[in-house]
Amino acid sequence: MIDAAEIDRLRAEFLRDLSRLDSEPELRLVRDRYLGRKGGAIASLMKALAAAPAGERPALGQLANQLKHEIEEQLTARRVALEATRPPAGAVDISLPGRPVGLGRRHPLTVLRDAIESIFARMGYQVLEGPEIEDDYHNFEALNMPADHPARDMQDTLYLGEPVPGQPARDRAGRPGPVRPATLLRTHTSPMQIRYMESHEPPVRIIVPGRVYRRDNLDLTHTPMFNQVEGLVVGEQITMADLKGTLTTFLRELFDERTRVLFRPSFFPYTEPSAEVCIGCVFCGGPGCPVCKRTGWLEILGSGMVHPAVFEAVGYDPERYSGFAFGVGIERVAMLKYGVDDIRLFYENDLRFLEQFPY
Ligand code: 2U9
User: Fold this and answer.
1) Within its chain, how far is the Cα of 186 from the centroid?
2) pLDDT digits (tens, 9 = 90+) for 186-209
3) Which residues span the domain enclosing 28?
4) CA distances from 64 to 17, 101, 304, 310 (A)
5) Rounded CA gap, 158 and 317, in Å?
6) How many separate domains does the chain show?
7) Is residue 177 one of the residues assigned to a domain?
8) Is residue 60 within 8 Å of residue 2, measured between CB atoms?
9) What pLDDT does residue 49 have?
10) Residue 94 falls within a domain, yes or no?
11) Do the domain assignments include residue 63?
12) Using 50, 70 and 90 to split pLDDT, how confident is the model at 94?
């Protein structure tokens, strides 16, 4: 049976629902629940009034109508308030969670190059870069590699000679026409050391990191472009002992303070005597494994005392000055340090590979 208390209960229920809604869709649900023509709480209330005793009907009807108007007014007021907070069409919804932005990181070869640079910087070396396009003189001739040296072969070096502008690239017989004086992609960073000595007197203490190019096909250990760091020290009393001490210190800082270092005779045209430098195998630690080919040693650096012919080429007196030089491939260091068996992985930019390295 409907009475005034029942109407008050319905009002309290409405006010509770009203206080809980905070969106336009929720508001529509509440409106339907109370004001819906069929099944709405007010419609049901009006219907039930018909069953009330005739004497109470007018008063109860008045209360019911009053509640209906209250509900209409409150819902309208809430709708206006919600509309006022609605963002304009096309606005950014700042309540949505953001899309994650991946943080960039340095490439492992860059990290290693920086580490190598900082070891030598602490030893007082200057860090220099040079041009990647070089001439035959600085890349070969001044480094005691004469015209018939095998490294100068087209098979090994990427030459950039171009037809001279305004003249045919081929003559009438189809033979190549005139070309610019040979330029090439440097095969090592040594030409920059030549350039440095051409314009500076000793003492010299520099390293030159950078890209170098060789006419190699891709395989597990070769890419036609790779990165090197070369170093050069020149002074009045520089000896092989300086070379050994410097490179031993360098390798123990780069790998581990207990790294064992081995120097053995080698040959390079620009150094005499020459030595290749090995570290105790980082994989088996000595006894021998497939990586070190059962020798217990891994070759990591080339080095030697600068050949007097190189000093002659730059105008240094070889009777007065001596020096040592060395070279290291950054990819090779990375492969040994991190146990990577395929150099090509460093150039595929697959984040699943690159994200494994410290940065
Ligand atoms: C000047 C005089 C001498 C630099 C040297 C090496 C030995 C050497 C290789 C290491 C791995 C190249 O990247 S690699 O393939 N380098 O073995 N480099 S001595 O000697 C120089 C450089 C400049 C004026």
Assistant:
1) 25
2) 999 999 999 999 999 999 999 999
3) 4-85
4) 18, 57, 105, 109
5) 33
6) 2
7) yes
8) yes
9) 87
10) no
11) yes
12) confident
Q: How far apart are CA 250 and CA 123, in angstroms?
A: 9
Task: Report d(CA 135, CA 185) in Å as an integer.
Answer: 8
- Which two three-digit tokens encode residue 336? 């040994």
Report pTM.
Answer: 0.73
Give yes or no for a contact between 353 and 345, defined as CB atoms under 8 angstroms apart. yes
State if residue 243 touches ligand 1 by the CB under 6 angstroms criterion. no
Q: Which residue CA neighbors atom 23 of ligand 1 most closely?
A: 190
Residue 190 lies in a domain: yes
Residues 168, 54 share a domain? no
Same structural domain, 68 and 204: no
Question: Same domain, yes or no, for 187 and 225?
Answer: yes
Banded model confidence at residue 91, pLDDT cuts 50, 70, 90:
confident
Distance (Å) from CA 326 to ligand 1 centroid: 5
7: tokens are 């109407």
Alpha-carbon span 286 to 284, nearest angstrom:
6
Residues 200 and 296 in one domain: yes
Do 48 and 143 belong together in one domain?
no
In this prediction, residue 163 has a pLDDT band, given cuts at 50, 70 and 90, of: low
- CA-CA distance, 191 to 133, in Å (whole number)? 10
Positive or negative, the CA dihedral 218, 280, 302, 233 is positive
Segment (H or E) for 314:
helix 308-314
CB 271 within 8 A of CB 305: yes
* Ligand 1 contacts CB of residue 326 (under 6 A): yes
CA-nearest residue for atom 18, ligand 1, is: 327
